[in-house]
Amino acid sequence: MDYIALGKSNLLVSRTAFGAMGLGDIEDHEAAIRMVRNAYEQGINFFDTSCESPESERRLGEALEGLNRKDVFIATKTAAHSAQELVENLGMSLSNLKTDYIDLYQIEKFSLSQDEEAENELIEKLLNLRESGTIKHIGFVTDTLEIARAAVEGSGPWETIQFPFNMACDNDIVEFTRQCAGSDIGFIAMRPLFSGILTNIPLALGYLKQFENVVPLWGVTNEEELQQILYFTQNPPRIDEQFLAEVENVRSFFN
């Protein structure tokens, strides 16, 4: 398993991140717990979830309970619009995840803020929570390029950004990943398989591996998916002319 420093956060995370949002949808509770443990035992140390899926948080917390807390990095997120809502959501996440701190706490934004005062209060609360150690690092999540750019180019406290990125994305998004690298912003790639539209895992994984600052976030819902991702992580495709031609064919189709 490869590990990289996640931007200026310096979190040393596995290049394969476990997207735990779907854990709550798995019918077999014990199977969900075993899958997380399996991922950890095979080298994954970075797990991402959200307060929007409390059952996923609870299962992730149960699965990681008992491990050396310093050996795992937990990321969760909130779409809070105020400091009070943020504190409430964080409190629930800490309880669900059975931990007294969050390694990477992320703010989800899907529209540009119209309330500057509330935005400033929310950021001030984030900084206070980081200073107290309740959260260790601060990240930003969006699926809108305009908002993502504004976050990276602004004066916010963002150490990482979570944004959709895969080989079907256009050149503007490719350039944005490079902008994040230049700003030392850790880049967490949502939807590495384009929400299931891309089915060639080794090709998708090999493409993202070319971007040294990018950590793909694989949504995992069953053991078979996990083992496929782990296999191709450990046995990545060779980047040669044939590989690049196949990637270009895919990119040409979507762009």
Report low-confidence residues grouped into runs of 5 or more. Answer: none
Query: Roughly what fraction of the amino acids lie in strands?
Result: 15-25%
- The helix tally amounts to 9
Structural class assignment:
alpha/beta
Which assembly state applies to the chains in this document? Answer: single chain
Spatial extent as radius of gyration? 18 Å
What is the strand tally? 10
Morphology:
globular
Largest pleated sheet = 8 strands, parallel, barrel
Q: Helix coverage percent of residues?
A: 40-55%
What does this molecule look like?
- There is one protein chain.
- This protein is of the alpha/beta class and 255 residues long.
- It is 44% helix and 19% strand.
- The protein has nine helices and ten strands.
- It has helices at residues 29-41, 54-64, 83-97, 116-132, 145-153, 171-182, 201-209, 223-234, 241-254, and strands at residues 3-5, 12-14, 17-19, 46-48, 73-78, 102-108, 135-141, 160-164, 186-190, 214-219.
- The strands form two sheets. It has an eight-stranded parallel barrel, surrounded by five helices. Strands 1-2 form a two-stranded antiparallel sheet.
- The chain starts with a strand and ends with a helix.
Write the layout of secondary structure elements.
Elements: E1 3-5, E2 12-14, E3 17-19, H1 29-41, E4 46-48, H2 54-64, E5 73-78, H3 83-97, E6 102-108, H4 116-132, E7 135-141, H5 145-153, E8 160-164, H6 171-182, E9 186-190, H7 201-209, E10 214-219, H8 223-234, H9 241-254
Parallel strand pairs: 3-4, 3-10, 4-5, 5-6, 6-7, 7-8, 8-9, 9-10
Antiparallel strand pairs: 1-2
